[in-house]
Amino acid sequence: MIERTLVLLKPDAVQRSLCGRILSRFEDAGIKIVGMKMVWIDDKFAKTHYTGIAERHGERVLKNLVDYIKEAPVVALVLEGVNVIDVVRKIVGSTYPNESLPGTIRGDFCHISKKYANDNNKKVGNLIHASEDKKSAEREISLWFSKSELFNYKIVHDIHVI
Ligand code: UDP
Ligand code: MG
């Protein structure tokens, strides 16, 4: 099934000038960019985006994460493809970069562990956000993008990949 997912190139990706290399990974896989913009979000928006994090990881992680996502602008993307929510999570790699496999974005471009981050009261800097499931993808896409910022068009992969 063709789906859409929300991806953020987090401030460390932008500040490390990795946006192009990260985007290439999705383009190479034949995934379509249907929305893209740079945004510097505020505290309120960050907390809305990261709803549920305090319940899952605790207040201290939420605070570090909100500070992290506001450090610099992010590049917000809506990506489209067949079962793209799970495919994008696979290309991104697992949450903690030391556990992310080589070949994934997190595995190739960072390596910090959850233990090191939390022992030192640091964020887990892992370059990228990707929606976890269909429900969160729908919520996050409508939070970040208006309908007029999303586009329907054909790319070569519509013929040769899909
Ligand atoms: N995070 C963190 N410390 C932790 C757990 C998570 O800084 O102990 C950050 C990390 O940047 C992660 C984000 O919180 O990407 C959201 O956590 P989630 O469990 O949703 O991971 P994701 O879906 O991004 O893989
Ligand atoms: Mg998540």
What is the strand and helix layout of this fold?
Elements: E1 2-9, H1 11-15, H2 19-28, E2 32-39, H3 43-49, H4 53-57, H5 59-69, E3 74-82, H6 84-92, H7 105-109, H8 114-119, E4 128-130, H9 134-144, H10 157-160
Antiparallel strand pairs: 1-3, 1-4, 2-3
This protein binds uridine-5'-diphosphate and magnesium ion.
Residues 53, 56-57, 61, 64-65, 95, 114, 117-118, 123-124, 126, 129, 132 line the site of uridine-5'-diphosphate (UDP).
Describe the protein in words.
By secondary structure, this protein is an alpha+beta fold. The chain has one domain: Alpha-Beta Plaits (2-Layer Sandwich). 45% of the residues lie in helices and 17% in strands. The chain has ten helices and four strands. The chain has helices at 11-15, 19-28, 43-49, 53-57, 59-69, 84-92, 105-109, 114-119, 134-144, 157-160, and strands spanning 2-9, 32-39, 74-82, 128-130. It has a four-stranded antiparallel beta sheet with strand order 2-3-1-4. The mean pLDDT is 97. Uridine-5'-diphosphate (UDP) binds at residues 53, 56-57, 61, 64-65, 95, 114, 117-118, 123-124, 126, 129, 132.
Query: Please, how many domains?
Result: 1
Query: CATH class, anyone?
Result: Alpha Beta
Mean pLDDT across the residues is 97
Query: At the third CATH level, what is the topology name?
Result: Alpha-Beta Plaits
Q: Tell me the CATH superfamily.
A: Nucleoside diphosphate kinase-like domain
- State the shape: globular
Structural class: alpha+beta
Distance between the termini: 10 Å
Associated small molecules: uridine-5'-diphosphate, magnesium ion
Count of individual helical segments: 10
CATH architecture term: 2-Layer Sandwich
Weakly predicted, low-confidence segments: none
> What is the beta-strand fraction?
15-25%
What strand order characterises the main sheet? 2-3-1-4
Amount of helix: 40-55%
Rounded radius of gyration (Å): 15 Å
